Amino acid sequence: MIDVQIAIIGAGFSGLGAAVKLKQNGFDDFVILDRGSDFGGTWRDNTYPGAACDVPSHLYSYSFEHNPTWSRSYSHQPEIHRYINGVADKHGVRANTRFGTEVENAAWHEDERRWILDILRDGTREQVRAEIMIGAVGPLCEPNLPDIDGFDSYQGTIVHSARWDDDVDFTGKRVAVIGTGASAIQLVPELAEVVGRLDVYQRTAPWIVPRTERPYSATEQWAFANVPGYQSAVRGAIYAMNEVTAFGLTYSPRSLKPVELVCRANIARSIKDPEVRRKATPTFQVGCKRILRSNDWYPAIARPNVDLVTDGIASISETGIVTRDGTEREVDVIVVATGFHVTDSPVFDKIIGAEGRSMANVWDEIGMQGYKGSFVHGFPNMMLMIGPSTGLGHTSMVYMIESQLNYLVDYLKTVRAQGITRTDVTAQAQRRYNADVQHELRNSVWVNGGCASWYKDHHGNITTLWPGFTFNFRRITKKFDIAAYDVERRG
Ligand code: N01
C-alpha cells in the first residue's frame, strides 16, 4: 500500500502543472501515476506524422515556464513533448512519478476518508491510498474506434491517429483514412506524399482557415530570451486577439460571415476540380465544430493519388472498405482518425464515488456536470483537471489549466489551514452553476450551428466547452469558495 496525501492521475500538461504547483506550495507528499513512459499526455501519445498544435507556441506553454527557444510560431508535437519533459525535470517532479502504471479503478472509502486506487504495474497489483485525488487524464486520451459493421473482420493493419505505430511502413501502400477532423487534416498531407493510393473517408467536411505558421528567426529567438517583457507581450497580444475575435464569433452569426468567406476562398484557391470542391465545402455553420487550420489539406485531397470519398461507409470487409453504393475499395492499411471518447470516456466507469456509484453512472443520469470544471457532487476530495465545461475551441487550454491550478492551490491551502478532512461540492451549487453555463451557451454557434460534434454529451448539451471569456474562468477560480461545499473538519 502506498500512502500519500495526494494522488495525481496523469502526467500531461495538467497533471504536471498540478505537481509543480504542489511542490511550489509545500505539498510534497504526492505521487503522479501514468500508464505511459514519459510526461506529455496527449503530446506524448499523438505522434502521427504532421502532429502539431493550432494554438501559437508562446501561448501554448505555462506562464511560469516561458520558452524563448520555440522554433516556430505554431509548435509541432516533438517540440511540445520536449518542452513538457524539460519542465518536469526543471521542477524535479520525476521522482514523484510512477510511469507504466495503470489505474484500474479508484473508489472513495467513506470510513477512511480516503481514495483507494487499484494500480497495475509490470503485472503487479498494488494499492494507493490518498486523502485527495486529482484526476488529470485529459479529455482527449481514450481513442474512439468507429462503430462500423465488420470493423473487427478486417485482415489488414489498423492504426488509430492517437496510437501511431512507427513500425507501419506506408510507402507505396493502398491506405484509407477514416475521419476529417483536426488529426486527419494534419496526417493526410504527410501520408499522401508516400503512399501509393489514399482514400479519405469524409462524413462531414470541416471548415478550414489558412495556417499562418512560420519559423522564428535567430533574432526573434534572441529577443524572446533577452528583451525584458517581450515574450510576455507577445503572449498577451495573442491571448487578447484570440479572446476578442473568437468569443465575438461564437455568439454573433453575422460576424462569422467573413470567416466563412476566408474558408471558401481557401477551398476555391486550392481545388480546381468542381466535384472535389463541392465535396470539400461544409454544410453547417462555421464555428459549430472546431475551425481547423491548414495550408496543405486541400492541395492534398486534390492530388491524383488521393480520393475524397463521401458516399458513406456501409461496412468494412476483410480486405477493405465498402461504401453505401456497394463499391469496395481494397486497402493495406486503415488509419482511423476518429477522435476520442470525450463525454463517454471509459475512465468515468473506473471512478466510484461516495454512494458507490461510478461517475459514468451519475453522468449518464444528469449529463456531464461539475462545479467550476473541478469538483463533482458525490465525489468528495477529488478534483478534476479539464473537467466539464472547461474546453475551448479558440485559445490555449494551458490558460484554463492554470486557472484550475489557482483553484487547486487555494483549495489545498484551505484544507491545510482549517484541518478539513472531507469536501464535497453541494448538489445545489453544482446545479446552479450548470444552469448558468447552459444559459450562457444558449445563443452560441455550438448549440445553434447545425452540426453534431464531440462538444455535446448524450443529453445533447454542450458540457465540454467553457461558454465565455477565459478571463472570467480565471476570475471564478481565483479563490476556493468554501460556501459551495459541504465540509468536515478534524476533531
Ligand atoms: O477527432 P474529431 P480528432 N465513420 O472527433 C469522423 C484536438 N486536436 O482526433 O465530423 C466515419 O475532431 C468524424 O466525422 P464527423 C482538437 O481539440 C487538436 O481529429 O463526426 N467518420 C470526424 O471527421 C480536436 O477537436 C489538434 O461527421 C467518423 C473525425 O472522424 C480534437 O483533438 C490536432 C466516424 C473525428 O474528428 C479531436 O480531433 C489534433 C465513423 N463511424 C487534435 N466516427 C491541433 O491542435 C468519427 N468519424 C491542431
From TrEMBL:
Entry keyword annotation includes Nucleotide-binding: no
Keywords assigned by UniProt, alphabetized: Monooxygenase, Oxidoreductase
Protein EC: 1.14.13.-
Enzyme class: oxidoreductase
UniProt xrefs under Pfam families: Pyr_redox_3 (PF13738)
GO molecular function, one term: monooxygenase activity
SUPFAM superfamilies according to UniProt: FAD/NAD(P)-binding domain (SSF51905)
Name assigned to this protein: Baeyer-Villiger monooxygenase
Organism: Gordonia insulae
Phylogenetic lineage: Bacteria, Bacillati, Actinomycetota, Actinomycetes, Mycobacteriales
